[in-house]
Amino acid sequence: MTILLYELVGADPSRPFSPHVWKIALALAHKGLPFETVPVPFTGVPKIEGGFSKTVPVIRDGGTLMKESFDIAVYLEETYPDRPSLFKGEGGKAAARFVERWSQAVVRPYLGGAALMDIYGRLAPADQAYFRPSRQARFGDRSLEEVSGEREAGLHAWRAGLEPLRDMLSYQPFIGGDGPLYADYIVAGFLQWMRVVSPFRFLDPADPVAAWFERCLDLHGGLMRKVPAAA
Fold first, then answer.
1. Which GO molecular function annotations are given, in alphabetical order (predicted)?
2. Which architecture does CATH list for 90-222?
3. Domains of the chain by residue range
4. Three-state secondary structure string covering the chain
């Protein structure tokens, strides 16, 4: 049975951008599980599956509904143990939880602020009306324009914060080692988020992290690359 994956979109339903949904799209492809996506705008998320979740991703696998990206990844691992592993054991799962927390603390905050106006510009009017006040409240009642306007000033520090990943990639091609695991998809999802919504050059092309991300873009038949970079 085909799994349904609810994904976040703006006015263009062909450009899903939620980093957390991208993690699960990659995880499903890694497992070789057939899935279909259901595009949902911001204002439609509370209506998914009768109000099952306030956020995406949400999947329906037959009679099972799941939410929260890490919980979904664990569900896929446990439900389909005969498929390629996302963690390669409990140690890999524990390491992925660390990568998730590191990403939330180091990778996401800067990108979230840097992309605010780019995301806003890609939304339909009803979603813009929701997005502006909700995000301005999240950033201390500062305007979207003010927060996004600081992205150049914060870029160097953000790139420097990627040094642990950069150093790791000096001796292995993926966070998972010779091949990708869910830990790779966690970080790649955040970078894909920025790639899809903004033309801002957030990675230095000469950075090993950029080379790793290019490898991730090629994974699973170029799943992420099928959505063109923002222009």
1. transferase activity
2. Up-down Bundle (1.20)
3. 3-79, 90-222
4. CCEEEEEECCCCCCCCCCHHHHHHHHHHHHHCCCEEEEEECHHHHHHHHHCCCCCCCEEEECCEEEECHHHHHHHHHHHCCCCCCCCCCHHHHHHHHHHHHHHHHHHHHHHHHHCHHHHHHCCCHHHHHHHHHHHHHHCCCCCHHHHHCCHHHHHHHHHHHCHHHHHHCCCCCECCECCCCHHHHHHHHHHHHHHHHCCCCCCCCCCHHHHHHHHHHHHHHHCCCCCCCCC
